Amino acid sequence: MPTILITGASSGYGLETARHFLAKGWNVVATMRKPDTAALPRSEMLRVLPLDVTRPESIAAAVAAAGPIDALVNNAGVGVVGAFEATPMAHIRKVFDTNTFGVMAMCQAVIPQMRERRSGVIVNVTSSVTLAAMPLAAAYTASKQAIEGFSGSLALELGHFGVRVKLVEPGYGPTTRFAQNTDIRVEDLIPAAYADFAGPIFESFAKPAMTTREIDVAEAVWAALHDRSGRLHFPAGQDAVALYRARLG
User: Fold this and answer.
1) Annotated active-site positions, please?
2) pLDDT in tens, 56-87
3) What is the pLDDT of residues 202-218, one digit of tens each?
4) How many domains does the chain have?
5) Three-class SS state of 1
6) Which one, of 108, 83, 99, 79, lies nearest residue 143 by Cα?
7) 132 FRET partner, CA 20 to 30 A, in 36, 41, 190, 245?
8) Domain with 94 in it: what CATH number?
9) pLDDT band per the 50, 70, 90 thresholds, residue 101
């Protein structure tokens, strides 16, 4: 059976994607910074490995331990919400280290084996913020938009070797912690001058018209991974699908 390596599989989209592929009979390598199997089903087809995508030595060790990888899902991510002017550059660099450079580093680590076999799929999970401009998410959007452009170019580059690259773009999911894996509070990033502007926005976050379920993302990853039409974008969730269709006109 084929093997899929998923980053950020301890919770949320990554966890549900791991469960989904196990149910489909795949060998799953679920990676996370602090290995925890409590939420994962017991299965001989599952391996849990430590992985910090911001550390080259951690990436090398995880990829070596995983063995041949047929599919890579770059799901690990860090969120940040707040006024851009109040967001410390040190924190923005942390966001890019995971969301952008971490994805690129994982791709570099697995591309050689896929290229040599002339097969494989890389699925990069971004966000619906890449489909339409959203306020109070400038730094986060930039980190994800970079991967959108990167993936489009990489798809053309690796297509020559039979390796496919796809994008999955989840919509807003209130059950997930958008600012997970961060050490900065949202309230610290909203100066008094922004209070009137930010208030209604956070109220809309609390009562979204449409939300994205974790299974929506897992199913989108499954569809993207099996797609051979050359399609790059796979929005996940009703809100993301609506934004994607609006962009297409």
Assistant:
1) 140
2) 999 999 999 999 999 999 999 999 999 999 99
3) 888 777 777 899 999 99
4) 1
5) coil
6) 99
7) 190
8) 3.40.50.720
9) very high
CA dihedral angle for residue 167, residue 125, residue 120, residue 160, rounded to 10 degrees: 40
Q: How far apart are CA 89 and CA 39, in angstroms?
A: 34
| Residues 6 or more apart whose Cβ sits within 8 Å of residue 208 | 172, 174, 239
Crossing angle of helices 103-117 and 56-66, rounded to 10°: 30
**Tokens 């041949």 identify what position?**
68
Residue 119 near residue 162, CB atoms below 8 Å = yes
pLDDT tens digits along 104-146: 999 999 999 999 999 999 999 999 999 999 999 999 999 999 9
pTM of the model as a whole: 0.94
Helical packing angle, 89-96 and 138-159, nearest 10°: 30
Cα–Cα distance measured from residue 117 to residue 60, given in angstroms and rounded to the nearest whole number: 19
214-226 vs 12-23: helix crossing angle, rounded to 10: 60
Q: What one-letter code names the amino acid at 163?
A: V
- Phi, psi at 235, each rounded to 5°: -65, 145
Residue 206 has a pLDDT of 78
